[in-house]
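Dear colleagues,

For the upcoming journal club I promised to circulate an example of a predicted protein-ligand complex. I picked one with MGD because it came up in last month's discussion. The inputs are reproduced below in full, followed by the predicted structure.
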Amino acid sequence: MTDTHCPYCALQCGMRLSPNPAGGVPEVTGRDAFPVNRGALCGKGQTAAALLAPGVRLTAPLVRDADGLREASWEEALDRVAGAMKATAAAQGPDAVGVFGGGGLTNEKAYLLGKFARVALRTRSIDYNGRFCMSSAAAASRAAFGLDRGLPFPLADVARTGCVILVGANPAETMPPAVRYLRELRENGGTLVVVDPRRTRTAELADLHLQPLPGTDLALALGLLHLAVAEGHVDEEFIAARTTGWADARAAAMAHWPERVEALTGVPVPQLREAVALFTRTPHAMVLTARGPEQQSKGTATVGAWIDLCLATGRAGRPLSGYGCLTGQGNGQGGREHGQKADQLPGYRSLEDPGARAHIAALWGVDPGALPHSGSSAYELLDSLGRPGGVRTLLVMGSNPVVSAPDAARITRRLTALDHLAVCDVVLSETALLADVVLPVTQWAEETGTLTNLEGRVLLRRAAVTPPAGVRSDLAVLHELAQRLGHATGFSSVPEEVFAELRRATAGAPADYSGISYDRIAAEDGVFWPCPSPEHPGTPRLFLDRFAHPDGRARFTAPSHRPAAEEPDEAYPLYLTTGRTVSHYQSGAQTRRVPELAAAAPGPYVELHPDLAAGLGVREGELVTVTSRRGTVTAPARLTAAIRADTVFMPFHWPGAGRANLLTNPALDPVSRMPEFKVCAVRVEKAVLPRVRVPAVPVAVGA
Ligand SMILES: Nc1nc2c(c(=O)[nH]1)N[C@H]1C(S)=C(S)[C@@H](COP(=O)(O)OP(=O)(O)OC[C@H]3O[C@@H](n4cnc5c(=O)[nH]c(N)nc54)[C@H](O)[C@@H]3O)O[C@H]1N2
Ligand SMILES: Nc1nc2c(c(=O)[nH]1)N[C@H]1C(S)=C(S)[C@@H](COP(=O)(O)OP(=O)(O)OC[C@H]3O[C@@H](n4cnc5c(=O)[nH]c(N)nc54)[C@H](O)[C@@H]3O)O[C@H]1N2
Ligand code: SF4
Ligand SMILES: [Mo]
């Protein structure tokens, strides 16, 4: 029996794995004592052990020859990858070798991957899928507070505040065990406001549901701030004592009067007033965002506007109040702190800060001048693949961009234009299918490592089963590749040794892990960073005395509304927004291989309002085509009055003809470089295909 954590999302629910009396994969149960999920698991967590079955996961390296992928020895596979890296670097320079990581990787892996890129490859070409996830919220939090940690308070605080505005988050499907805190909030007399263009299962729980046009959250936040000012809810004392920049923020809000905001967002003025009343009626309140407002080409400014609302009303930097972002991936938080981001060194240090470079270079035993500088962001990196001056050899670890990247047909073409693609994965993902070498690696319950959940709580995910023969860990892969690139030392494959080095690397940094140890995490059910010494209790709540800027003050950002990069027009008259459904995780590489989940959600679909469907002559279940300037997809229609009639929604979990990312717009936020997954313009038509049979279970490529 082993206590560990879920392989999937940022809630990192505590679970227990026990031997199965009937044999086969272990039994999974929720762990009551773990304070975040308190015993609850969603269907994905409950069925996660299916991924441990030998027929599901990869068990031998694969290399490509003229006939396609074939099994190979580890020696041959690793030699091929290292050989390609050396050849590309020699011919095109070190930046032509790239690395693409993932927010699901443990802290140890993220750390070693960043070190591998900077020390063994000496490349600036490294970034990761977290750029597609919460990078806008991270950028806005850093600008406003001087520090970014998903939630600056434990999740349980949500149940004890007075009002929560939940913006573009659907935890009823994306973090089901967290819904308990929203229910408790209401049982305790608090109120819930949900902002979502769809009336989701989460919106069903709310006291007030605002249903704006996709891409208009910035105007909405400014409209609420306008009303807070007009109705006398500004906390002048707090503003004077703890912030800077209010005059500009006030002016920005005053330019967004209620009628203008109603016209921009479609949210009626009385609802705007009601939201402000609920938010300001109690002394404590929170704004929480997820991907809805963040995955926009103005995501950073949008989150900044919601933070401005918190600051102006004194609902930040105080107990039971503040702004938080619900991070997404298992290690969405830690994955962005330890150096797989194009501009970062471990501990949330900046790659462009001379002091940070010196500290890390000394630890790594290299000259600070030898550390590369910042590279380009995830989409830009992927878009450079195979181009002159771009990346020619790529190592992917923990992502499946063929399904998850915006404008995915374009990115698939770029991946196939590489000289060499190596993919480390647990399963044969759609991206692995394109690879020259596939390295099969150990996964969650087969290995030990730390992850940092959405609260900034550093957790220990323990090995519970012995990995199958033929599989090695990501750390071992990096160790072996580093050796072949001439680094005999410095790349341990032992997680606890890597963590010990990570602790030293983060000492004195914003995300300071130096006081955290595996033993402490186990004894305390997680330790909140920053934790600068073994005696330090950790920091569940940030900013209560001061914000993290040198002057201790938070900064208003004062943004102004601007349209989405692509608004509907005559040719593409509807909005498309994309997101998730409860049964599948991300690109679906893992969950499409779990029979219960594949049966519950067998394939892609397009949600549309019955009025829109009637106008198009489309009935429930009939195939529709959705066309954007990037491509066309075909999927069955799902009629629901829960969505706006000018907007259609698609989940993005499937490859094939219904791959939502064939449509999405890779317009990037100028600060965070986040693509605009949540808004583009499309045309929807009834499919006029010659009698296509819809397979009952759409075939996942490589499934
Ligand atoms: N089941 C499941 N759970 C997951 C994941 C998964 O793939 N599947 N992935 C994990 C990860 S990595 C992440 S990042 C999180 C994401 O968690 P969420 O952010 O909760 O998930 P999404 O479905 O992407 O988006 C949330 C909501 O944003 C709404 N939305 C769309 N456009 C807009 C807009 O313009 N404004 C506003 N306000 N809302 C908008 C959508 O209708 C949707 O209901 O989930 C995590 N948990
Ligand atoms: N249209 C649209 N697209 C989106 C989004 C959206 O809302 N709309 N959301 C975006 C967001 S928020 C995210 S986070 C991305 C996620 O999209 P991806 O980056 O594609 O994430 P996953 O599907 O989780 O892919 C992880 C891959 O790594 C493998 N894997 C799992 N664990 C390990 C491990 O320990 N080591 C290794 N080497 N591999 C492992 C899995 O099997 C899987 O193939 O998608 C983005 N794409
Ligand atoms: S909510 Fe997230 S962490 Fe919890 S069981 Fe579901 S997928 Fe796993
Ligand atoms: Mo994410």
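Two points we might discuss: The two ends are 30 Å apart (CA to CA). Residues 62-132+331-442+471-491 form a domain with the Rossmann fold fold (CATH 3.40.50.740).

See you all on Thursday,
B. R.
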